[in-house]
Write a structure and sequence with these properties.
The structure is a single chain. This protein has about 400 residues and is mainly alpha-helical. It folds into three domains: about 110 residues, no CATH class; about 110 residues; about 160 residues, no CATH class. About 70% of the residues lie in helices and about 0% in strands. The protein is built from 15 helices and no strands. The longest helix is centred in the last third of the chain and has 28 residues. The termini are far apart.
Length: about 400
Amino acid sequence: MCVALYPPPEVGGFTAIGDKDSNTTFIIPIDVSLMFGVPLLAFGLLFTLLSDIDNALTIASAVIAAIYLGLGSFFVLKDKNNANQNRYTPLIEGMLALGFGFLALMIAIAFDAEWTACGWAIQGLALVWFGRQSLRGWTVLLGILLQGLALAILQPLFDYYTALAPSTLSLTISAMGCLASVFILRNENNPIQPDYEVPAKEKHLLASVNTTSPIFQLIWSNSFVDMLTVVSMIWGLIVTVLIIDDHMGNWIDSLTRMITFALLINLIGYFVIDKYRQWNLVTTISHAFLGLFYLALLTTVSFHFEYDDATTSSFWPLFITLVVGWLLVGQLWIKRWYYADKATNFDTVTWLMTGTLLIAQFSYYLLPHSSQVMTVFITGIWLIALTQLCLRKKLNTPPWFNW
């Protein structure tokens, strides 16, 4: 720090950190073993001295984290006022890494496993946001690793025989943190994408960053971000099912119905996000989510009538909600895919066939004394009428629905 703040005097027209006649300055070098070794050895000494005192290690970790985060913030501000904004980069990244590391350690010491995972998920999201704003690949990677550790900590808590299940709040924070992180890193917000419009305030920052470094290329590579997005969406779906089971388990007593309802909630959420902030990958993955929703909806009807006749009163309100979801959410996504040039021939086909199979199933189960004659009759009339109307082009359908 003394070398960085008070460089040595000139010797023969040169200094240790730059050329007298040049407008640029070299990056301040650091001794990695000295920067990271001293605080780690100091914390080891504090652990030995304070391990028998309640909350002493927590306070010590918080103090060390505050010191290094304060020093890192000081050099960030000093770097902005410097002509060469790369000068203090090693110091900034080293001190911020130590500060956030001791902050994560403080959370782990102070809380139990569940709330440690919750705190690390929030801290990981903050690191991803800060790393994206400052284009620091190591900061983003540290945030992703913290969120991965948070998910790993939560997994053993699902063993109902040894521990209580995680609370709804911790699960929600974990899922929302993961989704928010991949939203920040989405391809539309990728600084190295050819079609990305770099804001004016980010151009100078991007020019001063080494965009060819392996970490920077990994963090903002399409395949890496796509993998994180898929994992986050699957985790979000699992968390939604668990929350429904926790709060509505007495009303929705079938796993198939929970999954169907969770898929509908996720599809609505992703549609709202994509409507206001473009997210092409989610738009693409929603094809699979909507197909799973159709399949789960049809399976729900079959399982209900075949195996679960005792819960008719609780089944019908949920089923009506799901059918309305099929009708509205399905059409909204078809419209969204049409205008985003991501529509396929199977979108309208799967939507229509789901409706046809629903009609057939209800004709079969609600008219049991017809010996399946009315099932064939009603479904056949529906298909013939639909085909005739389409062939004669009597249906005034919107352009996004390919009848």
